[in-house]
Amino acid sequence: MTTPDISSPTTPATRRWWTLGTVAIAQLMVVLDATVVNIALPAAQADLGFSDGDRQWVVTAYSLAFGSLLLLGGRLSDLIGRKLAFLIGLVGFAAASLLGGLAVSFEMLVAARALQGVFAALLAPTALAVLTTTFTIPRERSRAFGVFGAIAGAGGAVGLLLGGFLTEQFDWRWNLTINVFFAAIAFVLALVFVPAATRQGPRPHLDIPGTLLASAGLFALVFGFSRAESDGWDAPLTWGSLVASAVLLVAFVIWQRVTRHPLLPLPVVVDRNRGASFLSVMITGAGMFGVFLFVTYYFQLSLAYTPMQTGFAFLPMIVMLVIAAQLSTNLLLPRLGPKILVPAGMLLAATAMMLFTRLDVDSAYLDALPALLTLGFGMGTIMPAAIQTATLGVDRRYAGVSSAMVNTSQQVGGSIGTALLNTLAATALADYVAANQPASDAVLADAAVHSYTVAYWWSAAFFAGGAIIAAFLFRRKRFSVASAFHSESTEAPALAH
């Protein structure tokens, strides 16, 4: 006798919603950790005494480990079981966070951040895979992915809010150790509400060559863009890493075509709707992460906001994002499908970027509010629709690795966007100062706002291009959760979840 599949509609509804709460805590912990530490960096630097040049490694260590190991983490969740992978991810992430909170040196802090990234790479795709295989009833699935998409889109802003509060009211170390409490709650809930299931058929194999190629390729990609941000695009380490990444990832694709046990079965990616979803998440990540960075700079440097005030300034955007996420997944996506909804969200985000370009040194918060609200509605329209479509109809054997592709797309997009926008903004700032000598305080203030404006215009271009790509790639047929899962259920699963 086997245990029920976790996707079974016979699972009590209350239990499924508790599962969603458990997954939501884990996802929020992973997403906000990409930004919550940023606000704490000045205080950590003063406490541990590391240089400005070393500061970036506190952020980069996390993104390198996270981005390069996501595909492996997703596949491991398919192989060892979602519940076990989820619990291991929670314990490991909590332990790494505690290590970072207790750091007595720069090296210890960086090591802890890298370990956080390692376990986040296991936790993030597993959380989404649990959600994917738990909610198969169309109406419930829409609601669940609305919540998940809202977290994925707003997590960065929530990190700024929480980071500002903890840094000002307590200590920078709480930005890391707070994860221990989140993880403990999620661990207890997971023991009760994340079902385990028996395996059917032979144990699958792990694609070792594919794992090495993918991990090395993604590492080189994220590392190359991080070096471009600090060293410039013409630095040998920058372009050398990007070239190496291209070679390794091409070799990975070739290997996946010929191996019997691929790490990433190519049908997961080449499906037109899923491919469009992955690209949409990547483009959104490129625009979103860069914007959070420059809007944060504007609030803190131009408007002289404290870290906590900066976090609260993003609150209207978060509220609008949550509203839009529920509206889009419950009402609009079933009726309109991703072909209309995702491009519409992209256009809203592009509009928000153009509204941000109107800000100057004399602007007030109310001048930025329309852009924040528009951006929130756009993100809430894009992310749940793209994430739900990306995981819809995937063979349940590959739910983990498919979920990993969603996270990988967002991480790679964020790395590309941050590097590109930082480079463009830095160039714009230098050119403005050079053209407006002498470099008085007023000139420097105007130059900073000018550099943000350049970044906003480029972000608008990202989203406008994303709208065109999404409109072209997504299929025209109506979005149907029920039909997707019906077709999936006709396949003989080799692995029960």
Describe this structure in words.
With 497 residues, the chain is mainly alpha-helical. It has 2 domains: 13-195 and 263-489, MFS general substrate transporter like domains (Growth Hormone, Chain: A), CATH 1.20.1250; 207-262. Helix content is 81%, strand content 0%. It is built from 17 helices and no strands. It has helices at residues 13-48, 52-80, 82-101, 106-134, 138-169, 174-193, 208-231, 236-258, 266-270, 272-302, 307-313, 315-336, 338-356, 365-391, 399-435, 441-473, 481-489. Helix 5 packs across helix 14 (365-391). It is globular and about 70 Å long. The two termini are 15 Å apart. The model is unreliable at 1-10 and 481-497 (pLDDT under 50).
**Rg from alpha-carbon coordinates:** 22 Å
> What is the fold named in CATH at topology level of the largest domain?
Growth Hormone, Chain: A
Order of helices and strands: HHHHHHHHHHHHHHHHH
Give the amount of beta strand, in percent.
Answer: under 5%
Number of separate domains:
2
Q: Let me know the CATH homologous superfamily of the largest domain.
A: MFS general substrate transporter like domains
Oligomer: single chain
The chain-level structural class is: mainly alpha
Low-pLDDT runs of 5+ residues are 1-10, 481-497
Helix content: over 70%
- CATH uppermost class of the largest domain: Mainly Alpha
> What is the correct CATH architecture of the largest domain?
Up-down Bundle
The general outline is: globular
Distance between the termini: 15 Å
Tally of DSSP β-strands: 0
